[in-house]
Amino acid sequence: MYRPIDPKVDCVFKTLFGSEDHSELLIDFLNALLGDELPAPVTAVDILNPYNERETLDDKLTIVDVKARDAQRRLFQVEIQLLVFPELSTRILYAWADLYSQQLQSGQDYSELQPTYTIWLLDQTLFTARAEYAHRFTLRDELGRGLLDHGSIRLFELSKFAVERVETDTERWLAFLKDGERLDPDHLPEWMHSPIMRHAMSTLNAFSEKERDYHRYQSRQEALRQQRAIQRALDEARENTRAAMQATEAERQAKEAERQAKEAERQAKEAERQAKEAERQAKEAALQAREEALAEVARLKALLSQRDAH
Q1: Top-confidence residue, 100 or 238
Q2: What is the 3-state secondary structure (H, E, C) of 23-79?
């Protein structure tokens, strides 16, 4: 009986693309996802980190990578990321830069550097504000002019991938990775009828039929479930921390607004006091001016009286 196998699980993914026994799968995969920018197709690969079935269950599960070099010495790295974390964009750039820089040994010239291509397959969404599922990143200036044609970073968000009909080689592989667990080997869709895709499906069958492989697959699945639970807990803790910080900031802003309101009230009362003081001083000045005017009139009358008396 066939038991569903998810090709995105690390031990399956690395058997598909990181095993020397299945190198033709990696070659077809690279040509499918990079063919539009490769000057010449990949014809043979040397897998630099071939999959070792004796890897322990303590290995990191969230990032699975396959590194290879082709006959033209171009470098390729394929990684599948099942969980998205805040620093993933930095991790993606670092992976490309690290692979590119590792080409040179001490004393070698920069002319030895060859194009480097990294492919990232994400099971979750990284760019929530972007509708497209496929992204290509290269070194370019503000006018879109390339600095150097030495590879690229390709990113595919499987969570967004959806087509009414699988037509291209790229769509074929993405559909296989996203929906492979739901494929029925006895009733495969038309796009799975090519020899290379039947080869990929037979690899899934092997994990289903061999008890040792299926046990290993189940152990990986359980570890992934635990890691997803941990990731959810971390995300919730991060969100709670963010909410607490926002609440603290809102409280600070409310207190500051209250302080400013009290200060405005104090300034208004002070302005009112100053206005009353000015009014009082104006009345006092008017009264003083009136008294001085009356005194002056009295003085003039006295002078007139003295003159008439003489």
Answers
A1: 100
A2: HHHHHHHHHHHHCCCCCCCCCCEEECCCCCCCCCCCCCCCEEEEEEEECCCCEEEEE
At 21, give phi and psi (nearest 5°): -70, -20
Sequence-distant (≥ 6) Cβ neighbours of residue 210 within 8 angstroms:
none
**135 three-class SS:** strand
301, HSE (Cβ side, Cα atoms, 13 Å): 6
Instruction: Please give the share of the chain, as a percent, with pLDDT higher than 70.
Output: 95
Which letter does DSSP use for residue 160 in this model? T
**pTM score, whole prediction:** 0.72
Question: 291: which 2 tokens?
Answer: 């008294």
Neighbours of 25 (CB within 10 A): 20
Q: What are 97's two structure tokens? A: 């830069």
Residue 57 has pLDDT above 60, yes or no: no
Amino acid at 12: V
Query: Cβ atoms within 10 A of the Cβ of 22, count?
Result: 19
Q: Which two tokens stand for residue 4?
A: 């569903």
> What are the domain boundaries of the chain?
10-209
**Which sign, positive or negative, has the C-alpha torsion 237, 243, 246, 247?**
negative
Q: Please state whether beta strands 151-157 and 116-122 pair in parallel, antiparallel, or not at all (unpaired).
A: parallel
How does pLDDT run across 172-198, given as a tens digit for each residue?
999 999 999 999 988 999 999 999 999
Q: Which two tokens stand for residue 158?
A: 């499987």
Give dist(CA 188, CA 198) in Å, integer: 9
